[in-house]
Each structure stands twice: as C-alpha cells, then as structure tokens.
Amino acid sequence: MLDNLRAMGVFACVVERNSFSGAAKELGITTSAVSQQIRSLEQEMNVTLLHRSTRKISLTEVGQAFYQSCQEMMAAAERGKIRISELQDNLIGELRLATTPELGAMHIVPALSQWMMAHSSLKVRIEAAHHYVDLVDQHIDIAIRMSPKMEQRDDYEFIPMARVEQVLLVSPSYLNQNPPIDCPQDLIKHELLPIDLMTDYSKFSFTHATSGEKVQIEMPVRIQTNNVFVAKTLCQNGHGIARILYLDAQHELRKSELIEILPNWKLPEYILYAVILKREQQPVKITRCIETLKNFFAQLPGGR
User: Fold this and answer.
1) What dihedral angle (degrees, nearest 10) is formed by the CA atoms of 92, 146, 199, 135?
2) pTM of the model
3) How many CB atoms are closer than 10 A to CB 192?
4) Beta strands, E only, the chain
5) Considering the domain 166-266 in this protein, what is its CATH number?
6) Rounded Cα–Cα distance for residues 133 and 273 (Å)
7) So what CATH class is 2-84?
8) 84-127 pLDDT, tens per residue?
9) What are the domain boundaries of the chain?
C-alpha cells in the first residue's frame, strides 16, 4: 500500500510538470526511477495512464480519472501535515493530565484555571486517581505527582516544580485537652491520623533545624484514611495529630483552625513534579502547561 501511495504521488507530479524529467528534478530522483514508478502502477492496474511521445505526454481517459484520485490523496496528505503542525505548534486539540484527587482539586485546577480560560480552543481532561497511570497506555500528556523523591526512567522526563515540607497539625481544642508536645518523644503518648497512601506512614525521622539532632519514633494509630480532606477534618474535630504536607494545610493554618506542633523538628521534604514522555520536540500545549504550573508553584510558600 505504501509503495502504491508513493507511486501515486510520483504520477501526480509527472502530470503537473508534464514531464518525466521535470518530475524527477522536483522529487530528487532519477528519470528512470520516475518511469519505473509509472510502469508499476500501470502494470498493477492493467491500464495505460499516459500517452507518451518524443515531445510530450498526455493523460488517457483512465489516467484523467486516476489523476483526480491522486489529487484528492495529495490534498488529504497536505491537510494531515497541516493538522500535525497545528497540534504541535498551537494550543489546540486535547491535553490530558493525570494526578491525585487532592492535588487536582486543591492545586492543579487553581494553577491552570486562568490558563485554561485563556485558551478556549484547547480541550483539557484531568484524570484524578490515587494509582500511578501509564502515560503511554492511557494517553496521558502530563502526570503531576508528589513523593519523597522523583522516579527514574529513561523514557520519561521528570520536571521538579516545588519542594514541600511535611508538618504535624492539631486542633486548638486537642492541644488544650491532651498532654503537652515539646519534643518528638512526646508523640508516643498521642494518636496519629495518617494518610495511609504514605509509605511507613506511622514512622517518623525528625531532624532538629538548629542542632541537627536526629530522632526516630513510631506513633500509635487507631483512625486512618487515604484522603487529605478527611484527615484534616478528623484533625479539626480533635481526633488526633495529622501528618500533612504544608502545601495542603496553608488555609487552615492561616485561619488558626489547625496549629503546627514541633516546628523546629523537620521531617523529610516531598517533591512536587511533572512527568512527560521524552520527545525530541514537545508539543507547545505541553511545554506551556508546564511553564504555567511551574510559575504558579514558584509563588507558593509550599516549602517555606
């Protein structure tokens, strides 16, 4: 099929140039190669497409009908090239993003809201799930993830956007009604409200911001969840201590609905990053989207 399409293109060029040699020059091949392509078409279809003479060529009746089909094919190919160029260089088509429900609702939508409004020709789909998606299998353009360290894969490109601290939070009422918390060891007397998507969610490795002292503990757990919103609500209702990323708790901290404990004892940071497939040239819609995300998160005190 591919050879036939190539031969149809050669035939159309011969008709347009009214010359085998002219077509050969246009296509960058030899005149004999042009002749061979035309002969192959005629032999396969068992027709004569061109009347040949020493001075000129002309179309047969069958050749005229076939030339119209060749023109339609060439026009379709050109439209395809234009469409590819538009998709590659302009903010049109569809952009598919994948992230977690919490990241999507609290950060990705606010980050991209004005950008999406400004580019109404671009369709956007945001896939929100807790499991990691395969970018190829699920046709994802950009995955936005949060983890203690970025993945390593040769076929993916990983783009860091922000470093985010973990904080320990309690409600004001919990702080007033329970034993004081002055050092990491005091946490053993309290219950953790973990988001169990975290690895080793009940274990803590603290480093003192000034002295560098390191302490490792494990907290007791009775109530747990897989959702940041639920963990914060449980914490606000005085059910225990929540281990949450600072980026996810800024609103509640500003309004004093939640209070940070042990601020001088630091937990390992998380990295907010984007994942895209490695390409020699990324579509503009992907690069512009990532630029918008990076600019948004650069202005947030996520890591303080």
Assistant:
1) 20
2) 0.68
3) 22
4) 50-52, 57-59, 93-99, 122-128, 142-147, 156-164, 166-170, 192-193, 203-208, 214-218, 241-245, 259-261, 265-266, 270-277
5) 3.40.190.290
6) 15
7) mainly alpha
8) 655 555 677 899 999 999 999 999 999 999 999 888 889 999 99
9) 2-84, 93-155+276-298, 166-266
